[in-house]
Structure to design on (874 residues):
């Protein structure tokens, strides 16, 4: 059998099933420093694993599935040590609460930052190994033999000598009565049958049949639908609306105000949307109706001449520049970007007197619970969070704006579940955008063309400082503005970097796949290319020469270059179309990625023909998923580089849907080859590191082809 | 009440004529495998078959679909099992987030009905649905695999 459900059980349902003797064995793993849970749960902490009488292993996944493979890689790590059959796994999303805060010394839980596998690898192994030890102990007790005489094969315990066999399903109720052992030994890496193997995805069948349930698909008795219209200017609010104009339309139940707009609730979504379109509504635009991205860009460029806050200082850059035989300087900028998940923002909520149930596509169930508790006034344990599959996340679903709307509306209509669905237009115009950023790069060379110094000034505002200032080590330094620019492995003797924080309020900004690396890798790797050309060197050789002390980086670069059979020169194909290669190398989220892009320009049209990608993420827990995430990251970065841009005029977003915010189409897709380097270094992330290098790799190839240096994105604004 | 034939079954549905077929299928018939992506006929997440033709159901009104037979992802396979395209999607592990995939599968099934052995170029140009996760290369491979599976079955 192969079962998979994307619906969460509540903690009480999960643990309660064990207490009621329903044959579900629930394992609680006590981990040092773990958050304590309430007394009623009898000290059960981090309950990940349940086994029913049929041997079905229910795995409570603390990480959500948004495409990146956590419903395969995370349970496989656990199942490796449990010796469970992947086909007998049922993966569900863990509820909110302290038991599942397994990240950063058991303080938090979210899905993002390319953290899922690397932050839980040992926890999941211990969870599986401990459960396996208890199942063996239960079998040994039944057979009255020492546990050491028993072994496991997927789903069963076997007594070696007698050949006696019991299934995990039979043993689970017995094992549940045992004390939880401490310090259970883990498997030898050499005996892995799941970890390090290209295990097939657990969710591919339900996603091919249409059964996979996303937030937008939630069904509930008495379900109502809400369509929302938010203030077109950020910071604006509803001034007036005439609900009488639409209340008599078919199916309309109510018109309600939400914090920054208005909602129509109806018995069908289409009816709600149609009524909303006809609802006369005026907005008080507030103080921000003069904001434009053009003027913000001018502010950023001006800020590049300010001194800012020093974030890197190696050697003496001033002296080095004064001695330099040659100096180059370039100013880059990158636009605002939208996430554009395929599934638009949506959330369903049901509020009763003492309970609130929220079906929310989210990247952190605790964040949902917190928002729902604040709005309803209920305690956290009265909030139930159901996390379905996410139709993409990319950082957008950390933000709880749509969740707050659903709970706000549901509170006004107790007992009725209400599903809020944003149109693509609302989704595009009320995102939390990748912030626009500008940077000035300067380099000095000696008379032989060796780089002496590099100086970087980055200006912008980062999502970390805006959304999570408590995470900043130094309140004056928001790394999410400049991360990926300074602190590079290239051996340049004098380095200086400054950051100037230029607020972009009222624009909502957020985490966008690879965050600051998404723009700073473009700046940095484009400039390294400019340096190579200024020094008269091949861009690969130039980098290699600066990486002699960085074998790990050098190996990743060499691998990609080798895969590509690197060509320094422009060449013509049989139709006379010119091709060239560009390269970029970038570390982010603990992984190092090099990409070589082969680009052609045919009569002004760009074609990205092929991308070779080498990645060192320490060790690939699931190489098939690592490859897919590299491809996925490349597509996300390439799409943005090619044609994505959000602009503001009069405080409003000027784009609204895929016709004016085009995303990468199938006919634009390059061939991609990925090679994984298992270096044995600490585990790195995989969901994001594929994104940053592709823009500079493509732009560096375009420079070679056309002589035009791309210093701002997207490419669609250029004529080649 | 209007009768609509979806996946070989009759549905008695109450909806306005101008309601896009997408929302009739999802919210009234309750078949949520067909997805809402853009509402302007660009992304293809809402792709279905209408009398065997591939259409974007967000652009088709309920009124215009009344006498036609509709197939959605839920009805693509048969009692005997999955459609070869669905099987190929599983074999090739195509899905990431999976949201666009029902539409991709409907598009691929329509392509293969029209042309049982499409070339790489035909696949690239005829498969026009968007995928934000970037599964395009797996989609191309799965279409080829489905063509082969379909050939073996016929």
């Amino acid at each position: 059998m192969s079962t998979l459900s994307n619906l969460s059980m509540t903690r009480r349902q999960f643990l309660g099933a064990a207490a009621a003797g329903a044959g579900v064995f629930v394992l609680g793993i006590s981990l040092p420093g773990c958050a304590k849970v309430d007394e009623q749960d009898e000290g059960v902490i981090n309950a990940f694993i349940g086994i029913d009488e049929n041997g079905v292993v229910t795995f409570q996944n603390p990480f959500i599935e948004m495409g990146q493979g956590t419903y395969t890689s995370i349970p496989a790590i656990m199942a490796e040590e449990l010796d469970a059959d992947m086909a007998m796994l049922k993966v569900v999303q863990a509820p909110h609460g302290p038991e599942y805060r397994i990240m950063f010394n058991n303080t938090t839980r979210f899905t993002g930052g390319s953290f899922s596998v690397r932050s839980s690898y040992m926890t999941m192994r211990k969870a599986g190994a401990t459960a396996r030890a208890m199942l063996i102990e239960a079998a040994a007790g039944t057979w009255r033999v020492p546990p050491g005489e028993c072994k496991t094969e997927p789903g069963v315990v076997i007594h070696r000598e007698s050949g006696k066999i019991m299934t995990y399903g039979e043993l689970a109720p017995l094992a549940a009565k045992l004390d939880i052992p401490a310090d259970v030994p883990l498997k030898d890496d050499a005996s892995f049958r799941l970890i390090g193997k290209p295990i097939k995805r657990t969710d591919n069948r339900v996603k091919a049949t249409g059964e996979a349930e996303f937030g937008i698909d939630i069904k509930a008795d008495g379900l109502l639908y809400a369509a929302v219209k938010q203030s077109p200017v950020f910071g604006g609010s509803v001034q007036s609306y005439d609900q009488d104009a639409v209340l008599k339309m078919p199916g309309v139940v109510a018109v309600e105000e939400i914090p920054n707009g208005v909602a129509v609730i109806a018995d069908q979504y289409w009816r709600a949307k149609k009524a909303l379109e006809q609802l006369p509504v005026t907005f008080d635009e507030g103080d921000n109706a003069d904001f434009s991205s053009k003027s913000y860009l001018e502010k950023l460029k001006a800020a590049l001449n300010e001194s800012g806050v020093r974030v890197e200082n190696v050697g003496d850059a001033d002296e080095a520049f004064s001695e330099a035989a040659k100096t180059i300087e370039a100013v880059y900028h990158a636009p605002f970007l939208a996430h554009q998940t395929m599934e638009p923002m949506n959330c369903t909520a049901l509020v009763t007197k003492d309970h609130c149930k929220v079906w929310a596509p989210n990247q952190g169930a605790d964040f949902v619970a917190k928002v729902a508790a604040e709005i309803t006034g209920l305690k956290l344990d009265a909030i139930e969070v159901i996390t379905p599959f996410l139709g993409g996340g990319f950082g957008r679903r950390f933000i709880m704006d749509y969740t707050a709307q659903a709970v706000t509306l549901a509170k006004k209509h107790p007992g009725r579940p209400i599903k809020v669905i944003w149109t693509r237009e609302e989704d595009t115009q009320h995102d939390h955008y990748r912030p626009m950023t500008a940077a000035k790069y300067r380099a000095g060379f000696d008379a032989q063309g060796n780089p002496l110094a590099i100086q970087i000034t980055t200006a912008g505002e980062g999502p970390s400082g805006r959304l999570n200032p408590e995470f900043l080590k130094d309140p004056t330094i928001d790394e999410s503005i400049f991360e990926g620019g300074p602190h590079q492995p290239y051996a340049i003797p004098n380095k200086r970097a400054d950051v100037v924080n230029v607020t972009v309020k009222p624009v909502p900004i957020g985490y966008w796949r690879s965050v600051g690396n998404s723009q700073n890798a473009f700046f940095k790797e484009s400039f390294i290319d400019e340096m190579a050309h200024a020094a008269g060197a091949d861009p690969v050789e130039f980098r290699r020469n600066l990486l002699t002390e960085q074998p790990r980086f050098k190996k990743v670069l060499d691998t990609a270059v080798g895969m590509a059979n690197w060509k320094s020169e422009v060449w013509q194909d049989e139709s006379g179309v010119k091709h060239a290669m560009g390269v970029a190398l970038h570390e982010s989220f603990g992984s190092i990625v090099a990409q070589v892009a082969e680009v052609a320009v045919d009569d002004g049209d760009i074609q990205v023909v092929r991308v070779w990608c080498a990645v060192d993420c320490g060790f690939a827990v699931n190489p098939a998923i690592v490859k897919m995430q590299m491809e996925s990251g490349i597509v996300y970065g390439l799409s943005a580089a090619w044609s994505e841009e959000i602009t503001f005029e009069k405080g409003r977003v000027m784009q609204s849907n895929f016709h004016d915010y085009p995303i990468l189409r199938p006919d634009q897709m390059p061939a991609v080859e990925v090679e994984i380097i298992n270096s044995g270094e600490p585990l790195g992330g995989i969901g994001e590191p594929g994104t940053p290098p592709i823009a500079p790799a493509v732009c560096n190839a375009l420079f070679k082809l056309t002589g035009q240096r791309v210093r701002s994105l997207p490419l669609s604004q250029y004529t080649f | 009440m209007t009768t609509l034939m979806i996946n070989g079954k009759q549905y008695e549905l109450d909806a306005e004529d101008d309601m896009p077929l997408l929302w009739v299928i999802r919210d009234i018939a309750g078949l949520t495998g067909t997805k809402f992506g853009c509402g302007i006929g660009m992304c293809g997440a809402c792709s279905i078959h209408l009398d065997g033709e591939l259409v974007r159901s967000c652009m088709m009104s309920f009124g215009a679909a009344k006498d036609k037979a509709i197939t959605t992802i839920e009805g693509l396979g048969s009692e005997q099992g999955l459609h070869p395209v669905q099987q190929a999607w599983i074999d090739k592990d195509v899905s990431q987030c999976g949201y666009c995939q029902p539409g991709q599968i409907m598009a691929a099934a329509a392509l293969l009905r029209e042309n049982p052995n499409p070339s790489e170029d035909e696949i690239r140009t005829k498969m026009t649905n968007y995928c934000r996760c970037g599964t395009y290369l797996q989609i191309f491979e799965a279409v080829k695999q489905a063509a082969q599976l379909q050939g073996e079955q016929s």
Chain A has a mean pLDDT of 93.
